[in-house]
Structures are given as structure tokens and as C-alpha cells.
Write a structure and sequence with these properties.
By secondary structure, this protein is α/β, with parallel strands linked by helices. Helix content is 28%, strand content 27%. The strands form three sheets. The chain has a seven-stranded mixed β-sheet, with helices on both faces. A five-stranded antiparallel β-sheet has the order 8-7-12-14-13. Bound molecules: zinc ion (ZN). Zinc ion binds next to loops.
Length: 282
């Protein structure tokens, strides 16, 4: 069994404040940003060990938050079955692409550390890719980053087996991916703050649920996210200027003041037209 774990950071065990995770913002204290990174590393190590104990043969761990670069290789669990990717864009077979290694031999796709989509009420740091996307829809269905990434994995028919994050992110995942196992490790108090079990307890819950996800995959309970092709991907931006700029890209239609849409023939092209992330990247 081969798994691909795509780690975002907002939903990681023990991360409870914006300052721990949006470390590029003005006024962030370096020691608080470092605390966030250490929580990410501890959560990855714990979940990866659990997956291997559950019998996973090969595991790709990908650090995607803010372009990656949040993990430190010498702090990561060392095991020949694990491959670490320090960013979500990289090389496969000499060609630059999104999520290298996510391909036919992968049996299951996991989205730990995630957050709810833009506009979600009662969520910790909800957004979709960038703060100027108010709503992204695939064939009319609003999705967040988990939906976008799962759609990309759907190109190879890879089932989505696990999500971890706050209550809102877990609700979103459970509503979209039948059979998924979720680990809810926090509840938002407001957009920028949340509360939850202490980091060690949250990590234990996450590791236990990751094992359940492996079992669910083995039992055939998980499904790929596979919107009907060809897809229409629509983005409502937060301003007319952003929509105007997006409409300059090839194949993109402006549908109203703040909204653009683009057809996509393949699930792996879900956001390639707008952010360039996909296969055969330049
Ligand atoms: Zn993130």
C-alpha cells in the first residue's frame, strides 16, 4: 500500500493561533512561528509512524503550506519507506509538476493539517488558495483546498481517505468525500483563534484516525473525488480588478464583475489555468 500525505498547517494538532501559522504576516514573533513549525513536525512524525505501523509500504509526505519549507529534514522520522517533499511543486521524471509522486501506484490520498474553504462560518482561518478567492466552484459545487487537491488526485482515481483539521474542515471533508475518516483536533473561537485538546492528545487522536483510514481503504470504503468531465471551474474573486486580471489568461471567460470561469478537460487541470499548478508545468 502506497499513500500520499499532503500536509497543510492550519489544521495541525496544537496550532491555535494565526500567529503560529501565518508567519509571513507583519508583527509575528519568530518564537511563535517556530512553535508552529515544531507542532507541524511532531504531528507529521506521529501520523507517519502510525501509518507505517498499520502496514503502509510506501509513504510520501508533502509539506505544502505557504509553498512548503516548513519541515526540517533532520527532525523528521527516518524510515526508508518515507519520502519527504519540502514543497508541493517539484520534479518527476525531469518534468516539473504539482505533487510529484502522486500517480497510478498511489492507493490513498490524505489531507491532514487542512482548513475549511473561503467564507465558511465558525472556521479557523478559512480560505481557498489565496485570500482574494471568495468562492471556487467545480461544476457549480463550492469546494476548498481539500476539494481542489482531491480533484487533482481524482485524475488517477485515487481515493481520499483522511482529513485532519478543525470542526469546520472535518465537516467539509465528510460532506464531500464518502467513506473518509476525519480527525477533528480543534474548534474555532473566531476566525483567528481556536481551542482543542492539548497537542499530545490531538496527535494521538490523529494517529489513531490515520490507522482507521488505512483500514477503511483496505476495506474498500473510500472513493475518489471525481467531478464529471469536462469540468467547468468558476472563481468569484473579492474584487473586479482580480477578475479582470484572471480573465486575461487563455481560455478564461469573465462571467460577471467578480467572476471568471474556465473549462477543464482533465481533473488534474482543476487549477492549472489559474495558478499553474498541475502536470507538465513550465
Ligand atoms: Zn496553509
Amino acid at each position: 500500500m502506497k499513500l500520499f500525505m499532503l500536509w497543510d498547517m492550519e489544521g495541525v494538532s496544537g496550532i491555535v493561533s494565526r500567529e503560529q501559522v501565518w508567519f509571513w504576516e507583519e508583527g509575528v514573533r519568530p518564537e511563535v512561528a517556530e512553535e508552529g513549525r515544531q507542532l507541524l513536525i511532531a504531528d507529521i512524525n506521529s501520523a507517519a509512524a502510525a501509518a507505517l505501523d498499520a502496514g503502509v509500504d510506501e509513504l510520501i509526505v508533502c509539506d505544502t503550506h505557504h509553498g512548503g519549507g516548513n519541515i526540517t529534514l533532520d527532525q523528521m522520522l527516518k524510515d526508508p519507506r518515507i519520502t519527504y517533499l519540502e514543497g508541493a511543486r517539484g520534479l518527476q521524471g525531469g518534468q516539473r509538476r504539482w505533487m510529484p509522486g502522486l500517480d497510478h501506484p498511489v492507493d490513498g490520498f490524505l489531507v491532514p493539517g487542512h482548513h475549511a474553504m473561503a467564507g465558511t462560518a465558525g472556521a479557523f482561518l478559512p480560505h481557498t488558495w489565496m485570500l482574494d478567492w471568495a468562492d471556487l466552484r467545480i461544476n457549480g459545487q463550492s469546494v476548498g483546498e481539500m476539494g481542489i487537491e482531491a480533484c487533482f488526485a481524482g485524475h488517477w482515481g485515487i481515493p481520499v481517505i483522511f482529513a485532519q483539521g478543525d470542526e469546520a474542515a472535518c465537516r467539509e471533508a465528510a460532506g464531500m468525500f464518502p467513506g473518509i475518516v476525519t480527525a477533528c483536533v480543534k474548534r474555532s473561537l473566531n476566525r483567528d483563534t481556536c481551542e482543542g485538546p492539548d497537542p499530545a492528545a490531538a496527535r494521538r487522536l490523529t494517529a489513531d484516525r490515520a490507522v482507521e483510514a488505512v483500514e477503511a481503504l483496505r476495506a474498500g470504503r473510500c472513493r475518489p473525488f471525481a467531478p464529471t468531465l469536462p469540468m467547468v471551474v468558476t472563481i468569484t474573486m473579492t474584487s473586479a480588478e482580480k477578475a479582470e486580471a484572471a480573465a486575461q489568461k487563455p481560455g478564461v471567460q469573465r462571467v460577471d464583475e467578480c467572476t471568471v470561469e474556465c473549462p477543464a478537460e482533465r481533473r488534474c487541470d482543476v487549477v492549472k489555468w489559474i495558478v499553474g499548478a498541475g502536470l507538465d508545468m513550465q
